[in-house]
Amino acid sequence: MAVGTLALFYPVFMPASAAAIAYAGHRASLVDWPVVLREFLTGPGRTSRILLVFFLVLNWKSLPLAWTVRIFHAFAYHVLRRPKHLPPRSLFHYSITSSRTSLLETDYNLHKSNSTYFADLDVSRSHLVTHLLGPAMPTVAANAKNQLVRDKDGNLVSGSFGIGLGAVFCSFRKEISPLQGYEMWSRVLAWDRKWLYIVTHFVIKGKVRPTGWDGRKMGPTRVKVQKADGSGEVVEDWSKYVIATAISKYVFKLGRFTVHPAIVVGANGLLPERPAEGWTGGESGTGTPDEVIEGPEAGEGEWDWRAVERERRRGMEFAEHFAALDGTNDLFDGGEDSAIGRFPIG
């Protein structure tokens, strides 16, 4: 998702898409579909046509413009289907998206090519961020009215709102076979003063169910099983179903100004009020680091600012290592000690 995409999506792409769909529907209504279908299935060359349709259906996600359709579908879907209010504990809950490996995504090792994971990540992150933070985006974008974002001198920031993808890391654990179904479980991992970190697990389809849903019922859930002696819940090793894990980082922008992620998250009502310097204060820009955050674990009792901050810090233990890789840019020396060669068809 590039900076500026969202600024164009609602006022430009949605009306244009609606007009295109309406026109296509009008033209389709003028076609004698029974005759067209009969000719397609029984006319000369029917075998080739049927095989071609079968091939296109199996590989639709790899066709031209399919990625754009998948991304824009995520935007539009959550405009129409998102619950009006999400509980604060939703901030670290998973967004689940299903997919299947197409034949055109399969490499010479006869499994899903590693490069194709990143297109799936685009779709999964778009679902998560649009669902979780969608209502906050126009609020932050209307900064002249809502006055949420100021620079270091206290001046209101202006400009179009957008989201930029800063980096992606992916660790591969198992292969995905051709036509195999899988799920992408994405959630907020943590944030610092600049980046919102998102973790995505590629999971074997049908093996894992959540214990509940934050909004309307969206599928089957998992029943918690108690030990025979009643001493506690039976905990399964869910990691055995993980195919790959990726971490991505997003930056929020108003024009060229970087918006603190906590401002966007807070604008959606997902951050409980925090004492002292709040969510953007302190030298770290993420609150006072020595604040006492002991208390009930996330999911136990009331979800307060301490539970959110504990989860954020837990995620930052991993995100900090990912962020440190930005320093590898300085390793590039421009071939100071020569290079191997320059090769064609890159």
UniProtKB/TrEMBL annotation:
Specify the superkingdom: Eukaryota
Coiled coil, from the record: none
Q: Name one Pfam family in it.
A: 4HBT_2
Comp. bias regions, Acidic residues: 291-302
Where does the record place the region Disordered? 275-304
Which InterPro entries is this protein grouped with? HotDog_dom_sf (IPR029069), THEM6_lcsJ_thioesterase (IPR051490)
Which family does the record assign?
Belongs to the lcsJ thioesterase family.
Protein name according to UniProt: Capsule polysaccharide biosynthesis protein
Native organism: Cercophora scortea
Q: Organism classification, top ranks? A: Eukaryota, Fungi, Dikarya, Ascomycota, Pezizomycotina
